[in-house]
Amino acid sequence: MSKLRPLAALALLPLMAGCKMVVLDPAGDVARQQGNLVIASTLLMLVIIVPVMALTIFFAWRYRAANQEATYKPDWDHSTQLELVIWAAPLLIIICLGALTWVGTHLLDPYRPLARTAPGRPVTAEVRPLDVQVVALDWKWLFIYPELGIATVNEMAVPVDRPVRFRISASSVMNSFYIPALAGQIYAMPGMETRLHGAFDRTGDFTGFSANYSGAGFSNMRFKARSLSDRDFAAWVQGNRASGATLDRATYLALERPSAKDPVRRFAAVDPNLFDAVVNLCVDPGKMCMHDMMAVDARGGMGRGGIANVRELAYDKFGARGTGPASTGDSRYVAAICAAPTESAMRASPGLPSMAPLRGAGLTPMRKPAPPITLAADTGTAGPQRPTS
Q: Do residue 349 and residue 365 come from a single domain?
């Protein structure tokens, strides 16, 4: 019996692994519907798998060499009835799985606002989702609450039964934002913004993490996701405001430097344009935002006047932001400009490029030029602005 005890302990391991099945017992309606899809898909596939496994054992036993009563037909090669069963059953399963996947893909679209927070709890038109801006850093998570003017690191809290609208981006490499108890995972990518909608339907403390490998500190890239009552959430907000710290651009640039196992940090005030600057890769002072660059490119570029409009980076982007020596000239970025040349300025200076849209590379401008654009200084709100009439 003593020799069998290790085998008995090993047999219990699969049962112990399922003690905390948060994916199948979540605290959010979206995650619960996703879990139901997993269960339904598994049951549908078992309709094929279980009979095949059972028949495999049956045929091995029925037609064993010692069984002389089994019918031996070495020339048998076709059965219409058997072919119908073999092809019809999997085809029906695939049709059912395809229908479930199609419906679930549209109903559980992460960009789609919630229609309910739980079965029987519809979201009315008067309910406004709570906006939470999420930035995946190396290797920690930054949460910004633009409506409340606060921010936290490695801790997120939302009121129970209130829809939450996440705007998600990253500072350097791709991560995957995932709170199993709330909703599915979605990628966080630098220079891009993804969205996710979800709502907790019961209070509690849950775990969120990155589900995409992103470097040495990836295994500790976890945060606490808290679902609180309205009263507790208000107290949590006041606790953050009592910290007195401010998250401005300089603080963010120091915060985004690679570090692991960071404690929870709280900020009582946040630069309102910080998240948009993160998405547009222009938190660094004097760097042109991506939307400004795209606006210039849409007008045909700045021509020869923009060739020298670059500056050296103050960090080594190939090593890690802020961790290497100053650039030696190999790494450069496009500098922000205060204003694009107007038509009158171009007439006065023939060397400047035309601001009229081009038909194509090297072709003449279109007959009707579009109004000039003006790019504001790099304050995080820079963008194409058309003069008003």
A: yes
Tokens encoding 285: 């002072």
Q: How do residues 163-219 score in pLDDT, each as one tens digit?
A: 999 999 999 889 999 999 999 899 999 999 999 999 999 999 999 999 988 888 888
Confirm whether 289 is domain-assigned: yes
Same-domain check for residues 137 and 258: yes
Helix (H, G, I), strand (E, B) or coil at 204: strand
Same-domain check for residues 292 and 214: no
pTM for the full predicted model: 0.74
Angle at 176 between CA 172 and CA 136, to 5 degrees: 40
At 17 the pLDDT is: 53
Q: Which residue has the tokens 């036993």?
A: 61
Residue 54 has pLDDT above 50, yes or no: yes
Strands 150-153 and 140-145: antiparallel
Which of 10-24, 40-54, 247-261, 272-286 has the lowest average pLDDT? 10-24
Q: Look at the block and give the residue holding tokens 């993804």.
A: 194
265 and 375 fall within a common domain: no
* DSSP three-state, residue 166: strand
pLDDT of the residue at 389: 36
CB crowding 197-217: b at 16 or more within 10 Å, else e: bbbbbeeeebebbbbbebeeb
* Model pLDDT, residue 296: 80
- For residues 147 and 243, membership in a common domain is answered with yes
6 found inside a domain: no
**Segments of 110-219 assigned E as strands:** 116-118, 121-122, 130-137, 140-145, 150-153, 155-159, 164-170, 175-178, 186-188, 194-198, 204-210
For 112-126, what is the mean pLDDT?
87
- Residue 144 and residue 171 in contact, taking contact as beta carbons nearer than 8 Å: no
Phi, psi (deg, nearest 5) at residue 254? -75, -35
Phi, psi of 287 (to 5 degrees): -90, 135
Please tell me the total count of domains within the chain: 3
DSSP 8-state secondary structure symbol assigned to residue 167: E
In a domain, 4, yes or no: no
**Tokens 């200076």 — which residue?**
349
